[in-house]
């Protein structure tokens, strides 16, 4: 199996591409906050409404514009750390300026006194604490090494856990306050107190991964219920502010998520002593395919890649697929110039099945996406795949590096072009 060399600098299984998914989610949430601020945010009036030039400087329109600009930068991955810090300061200042509990009050947290903006601020802190440029960010697009020097700060995960657990500890306080007869169980009062919330957060941070995973899933189910309640409201009307707070806490759940909980899908069993590996066949003249390979190399959770790569244009591909009888061009037509996978046990996967299989083999969020994608009907999956494939040459220029993407030396051993193929 191809060895990339060097220890991976990962915390809890985080990779750059997965972190970029979270970064984009935080950015979209910032954009939603900007829309609410532009429309007036909370309906409560300011205790000291400014006038004149000061009123223009602190107007909802200007604050919303600043948040929207920061949101776009965060989504794209440009200057993420300073933008996260700046937008967090703007949000905290604006909430205080409007003299409200928060831009987005969340019912359980509001009842117990936890600042409802805290989940959003904690998510922004996680972005600000990350080091390097993750795969998928704007600076990472031009570097040769797809992994780069990105790493997640362990403290940001601990902070996310603390806020998530304390939010639900405060929810317990709200339940305790409404306990029938007023005789609240001592354990419920203890867990719902601030010290109880900190204790639960510490347990979550120090517990074994399986324990943290159980806590995370239980709290996420509760979060879905809270979001549904906030979206509908008691009177059946939409509560944008409540929904916004639920979205903030849901995004913080993504920060507290640990990709190591979802291991990569195991390779199909092979005969004892066999050295067969899953092999990805790709269009060497396709810019999108080159980017797909770089994604796979950046997101592998171990220092060894689970695949060997071979371009469709190589004679080796013909021997592997056509001469071996895996694909019959006389019956099925010409071999499609798309991503193919020849599994270690000799199966041929094409189009969406091949793409989702690769994602399953990466583990973490990618495996979750791959598993969910495979639940879709094949016709629908392949239609989406073919729609993208039909315009890929228009959207992505033909690579200038030949059949193999430009990569550092350790990655090159992952390519098997055959002895009779020139690059």
UniProtKB/TrEMBL annotation:
Does the record bear Lipid metabolism in its keywords?
no
UniProt-listed InterPro entries: DCC1-like, DCC_oxidoreductase
* Pfam families linked to this entry: DCC1-like
Q: What does UniProt give as the signal peptide span?
A: none
Question: Which keywords fit this entry according to its UniProt record?
Answer: Membrane, Transmembrane, Transmembrane helix
Where do transmembrane segments lie in this chain?
20-41, 53-72, 158-179, 186-208
What Gene Ontology terms describe what this protein does at the molecular function level? protein-disulfide reductase activity
Q: Does the keyword Membrane apply?
A: yes
- Protein name, UniProt field: DUF393 domain-containing protein
């Amino acid at each position: 199996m191809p060895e990339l060399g060097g220890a991976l600098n990962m915390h809890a299984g985080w990779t750059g591409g997965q972190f970029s998914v979270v970064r984009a989610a935080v950015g979209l949430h910032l954009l939603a906050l900007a829309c609410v601020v532009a429309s007036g945010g909370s309906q409560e009036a300011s205790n000291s409404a400014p006038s004149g030039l000061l009123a223009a400087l602190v107007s909802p329109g200007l604050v919303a514009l600043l948040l929207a600009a920061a949101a776009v930068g965060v989504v794209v991955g440009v200057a993420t750390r300073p933008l996260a810090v700046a937008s967090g300061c703007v949000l905290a200042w604006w909430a205080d300026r409007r003299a409200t509990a928060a831009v987005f009050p969340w019912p359980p947290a509001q009842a117990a006194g936890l600042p409802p903006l805290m989940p959003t601020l904690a998510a922004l802190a996680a972005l600000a604490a990350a080091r390097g440029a993750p795969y998928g960010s704007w600076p990472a697009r031009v570097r040769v090494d797809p992994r780069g020097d990105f790493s997640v700060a362990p403290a940001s995960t601990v902070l996310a856990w603390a806020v998530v657990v304390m939010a639900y500890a405060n929810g317990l306080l709200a339940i305790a306050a409404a306990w029938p007869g007023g005789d609240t169980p001592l354990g419920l009062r203890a867990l719902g107190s601030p010290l109880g919330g900190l204790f639960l957060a510490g347990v979550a941070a120090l517990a074994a991964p399986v324990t943290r995973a159980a806590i995370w899933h239980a709290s996420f189910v509760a979060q879905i219920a809270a979001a549904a309640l906030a979206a509908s409201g008691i009177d059946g009307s939409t509560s944008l502010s409540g929904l916004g707070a639920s979205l903030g806490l849901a995004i913080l759940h993504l920060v507290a998520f640990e990709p190591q909980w979802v291991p990569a899908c195991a390779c199909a069993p092979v005969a004892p002593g066999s050295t067969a590996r899953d092999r990805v066949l790709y269009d060497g003249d396709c810019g999108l395919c080159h980017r797909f390979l770089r994604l796979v190399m950046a997101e592998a959770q171990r220092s060894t890649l689970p695949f060997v790569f071979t371009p469709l244009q190589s004679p080796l591909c013909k021997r592997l697929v056509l001469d071996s009888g895996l694909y019959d061009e006389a019956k099925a037509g010409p071999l499609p110039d798309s991503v193919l996978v020849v599994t270690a046990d000799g199966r041929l996967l094409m189009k969406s099945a091949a793409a989702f299989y690769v994602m399953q083999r990466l583990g973490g969020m990618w495996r979750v996406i791959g598993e969910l994608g495979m639940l879709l009907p094949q016709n629908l999956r392949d239609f989406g795949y073919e729609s993208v494939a039909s315009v890929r040459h228009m959207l992505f220029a033909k690579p200038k590096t030949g059949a193999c993407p430009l990569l550092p030396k350790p990655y090159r051993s992952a390519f098997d072009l055959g002895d009779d193929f020139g690059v």
